[in-house]
């Protein structure tokens, strides 16, 4: 339910009008649900059960579940208005929500009733739920975290809106052709989205380009007015996000870009049919594709347009809603908290200032105080190159008033910093403008300066922010950085993705963990119970069998579910070091062939993940994995002791099958570069052991699961930094590791690419000559750690004991805990 009443309706009238309304009471028994499904099939889908196909049944059932959500949605919205609760607004360019059908049924406790109702109608729920499109509105951890946070905010009672873009095409659909990644459109909206509600009345004008007019008031003060050259419309689509047990429901509002004038009729009538639609196509391109390639100037412009488009629409909507209820901006910071998820919404700093100063006539100092009090910023990277910067001339051309505001913020900032006695070097580092190699706006600095709190997403990450990417800003604002270690929602990643384990846990320790995951600790004594370990192992084998079917279906490779499933699935990037994994895999392959009678632990090496379309090195790693798999999987000498598979088109739905099936979770980023990771938490929750570096949230996982139940290897972040300062010679390192040199020589000779021996020349040369992510430096430690895992695998009692303890000790990594910390320490809102 959204607050779409007329702006002339007072808050008092609205509260009174809603005071007597109560949510509809619906029966959840199968008989009533069956009646509701048939009614939706007839009156919403327009189909007779006799001719209805599977998609029709899915749509009808989703609409029934949606009705049950809407009842609670309206009740949540009324309560928020009546109690005048402070709202949290979560701005994110990504929301990797995946499929919602199972999630919503689970949280409303409708799964058993819906399943039986459909069964009585001769409809297989397991079949139809696979037909639901996977809303891939994100690329990886950032977008999936946003989805987890939205569900957890509803669960713990934080009134919240999520704001993003309703992309026509989500992140590309990945296909593997001749071993290489090929990108195709992911048209998730091809047949509409039955979960969403269009809000045509929630539409805002977004400007680009033009000029700024300055006028003098009667008292000599100046007023600036932006006159955009181009405008587009942002129209809203709302999806309800239901919390656990359906107690609260929040809103995900996604913006769609539309032209202010859909067609130039004069041009169309004159015969210029394409020209007549040029402005329309330009406007629609904003919400057409997630992450357009920004390697070209046009791509950079489109990316910046996207970021400003959703940020401006969201802030206009927030202020409209606030003024509708309170009719004053005096209490804005008391009632509004805006969280910027990464730097994509960084323009919120300048846009909120523009709206407050130019449109609502606040004085600069008052507007700045409110802006900082309202905004907070989550950083997700320690890679300086990953902190967005935009050319000053591009921002000036597209957003001239915002560039003026950024200059003003910067001038005041530098004056304050200089007055405080800081050095010229610090002034240069904290400046919002990077003057080196072409003047660019530093979006990370803008976000930091405009927020009252800046948080990292794991303890190590937050500590490193203070001495790396935000070292100088931390010196100037020592109380601004705080830590909020990420979490994942147990409803999606345990109850829904791993129902077999969930039922075993309920049978063993009761239902308490379903409301408080910390109660998973009650499982610890059962790790020593042979009968329980056998049941735990049986659930794991069932999950591995399910993944084995998926692997065969998507790749044609048959794997043995009793082998160790060693899995690395995540966004493809050199710092995540999928190439360290595949190089060690090749070394293992060589060792197996050289010593075929050794007691090897059978392994299935599973990879999945998408590489950015223009990231050639990451795409080269994908192809190498597939080429290696093609050789290894067809080598009879290996005798099924090793299989290598790359699962194409990794998304949330695939992750729900992969995560519960893992025996070994690969979290092997170069120490000091992974902000947090959430895949490590999902794997651990389902009883996977982690092999990883002391990086990101692995540090806190080590603390919680215990050093005996996680395998940490390689250099620490401090050792990485020390090596870089000392000077790292990758060539000498590789020469000193015969197994690694043999692997690289084999790749370079074309063993895995006989039709193109130079296919991996760039990848191999980068390791010999620079090895920026220290693959060779950690190779021996990684290899030794893997052989320790081999030995442990042969002792299944010991392995399963550690697996059970991983599940038992992962409760702290719930996103509910994370959200409660945000609420208490950043947003100042109560939770339940």
UniProtKB/TrEMBL annotation:
Entry keywords, A to Z: Allosteric enzyme, Carbohydrate metabolism, Cytoplasm, Glycosyltransferase, Pyridoxal phosphate, Transferase
Gene Ontology cellular-component annotations: cytoplasm
Modified residues (N6-(pyridoxal phosphate)lysine): 682
InterPro entries in alphabetical order: Glycg_phsphrylas (IPR011833), Glyco_trans_35 (IPR000811)
Broad enzyme group: transferase
Subcellular location: Cytoplasm
SUPFAM superfamilies documented for this protein: UDP-Glycosyltransferase/glycogen phosphorylase
Required co-factors: pyridoxal 5'-phosphate
Protein name: Alpha-1,4 glucan phosphorylase
Family affiliation: Belongs to the glycogen phosphorylase family.
Keyword Cytoplasm carried by entry: yes
Free-text function comment from the UniProt entry: Allosteric enzyme that catalyzes the rate-limiting step in glycogen catabolism, the phosphorolytic cleavage of glycogen to produce glucose-1-phosphate, and plays a central role in maintaining cellular and organismal glucose homeostasis.
EC number: 2.4.1.1
The reaction(s) this protein catalyses: [(1->4)-alpha-D-glucosyl](n) + phosphate = [(1->4)-alpha-D-glucosyl](n-1) + alpha-D-glucose 1-phosphate
Source superkingdom: Bacteria
Any single Pfam family the record assigns to this protein: Phosphorylase
Signal peptide: none
GO BP, sorted A to Z: glycogen catabolic process
GO terms assigned for molecular function: glycogen phosphorylase activity; pyridoxal phosphate binding
Keyword Transferase: yes
